[in-house]
Amino acid sequence: MSDTRQHRGAHPEDAEQFSASHRPALEAASADLCWLLDRGYALRSSLALTGDRHGLTQRQRLAVARCACSAAQRARRLAHRLEPSELAGRELWIDGYNLLITLEAALGGGVLLQGRDDGVRDMASLHGTYREVAETRAAAEFVGLATVRWGAAACHWLLDRPVGNSGRLKALLSTLAAEHQWPWDVRLEFSPDKILRETPDPIATTDSVVLDHCGAWCNVAREILRDLHPPPALLVLDGSSLQKT
């Protein structure tokens, strides 16, 4: 069956699974998972234990996992985070699908998560093929307007070459850049993560694996969403109810 979705919005079950009645269990599970990660336990087994204890569904477990990290990971990520003002005069390397899909989800009414490292993440998934939605162009334009306002010298968009329709998205982003005379280049790469981990320039991503190795990053999605009127609601699962021992 072909994918006919027009928005990167909420999953049909999200309204119930992430409703106010489930927040206490999600917050407690987040605290428990962070506690286990702080003590060196593996994410997979810790998530299984935590999810079973709090009776979480698979989608709720995914949300908790996307938000969790150890205290050491959080400290490392925050130490390498730049404020938007620090992008002035610098080139920004963008994890294209990571940033764009989060903004599309925000504009389309999807669930947005704020994790222990303050990164904003979505609950959308990309299975081999990217589909442009109604919010795609607006999401990209928000990036352009924000980075110009912050004074970034250039933006290098990295898209995963193996993902279907990457060429079409490259064409759309290149067209937007030409229309607005934004200093963008868009690249199709087999391993964007490797480039993002190794570049000395600041990057825009909330990919946990990349954040644990990159030189400097900016929480671009969160900063853009703060400027929306009204800003979208965030489900905060930062382990803040973690009990000190």
Give the topology, please:
Elements: H1 14-17, H2 23-38, H3 43-54, H4 58-67, H5 71-79, E1 81-82, E2 91-95, H6 96-108, E3 112-114, E4 120-122, H7 136-150, E5 154-160, H8 166-180, E6 184-189, H9 192-198, E7 203-204, H10 208-211, E8 217-218, H11 220-226, E9 235-236
Parallel strand pairs: 1-8, 2-5, 2-7, 3-9, 5-6
Antiparallel strand pairs: 3-4
Account of the protein in words:
This protein is an alpha/beta fold and 245 residues long. Helix 2 runs antiparallel to helix 3 and helix 7 crosses helix 8. The model has no long low-confidence stretch (mean pLDDT 94). It has two domains: 60 residues; 167 residues, Rossmann fold (3-Layer(aba) Sandwich). It starts with 13 loop residues before the first helix and ends in a 9-residue tail after the last strand. Helix content is 46%, strand content 13%.
Based on Cα principal axes, name the global outline: globular
Average pLDDT value?
94
Given this structure, which CATH class of the largest domain is correct? Alpha Beta
How much helicity do the residues have? 40-55%
User: Measured on Cα atoms, how large is the radius of gyration?
Assistant: 18 Å
What is the count of structural domains? 2
Major beta sheet, specifics? 4 strands, parallel
**What percent strand?**
5-15%
Oligomeric organization of the protein chains: single chain
User: Tally of extended strands?
Assistant: 9
Q: Count of DSSP helices?
A: 11
Strand line-up in the sheet with most strands: 6-5-2-7
Series of secondary-structure elements, N-terminal to C-terminal = HHHHHEEHEEHEHEHEHEHE
Low-confidence sequence ranges: none
CATH fold topology of the largest domain? Rossmann fold
**Span of the ends, CA to CA:** 52 Å
Name the structural class: alpha/beta
CATH architecture of the largest domain: 3-Layer(aba) Sandwich
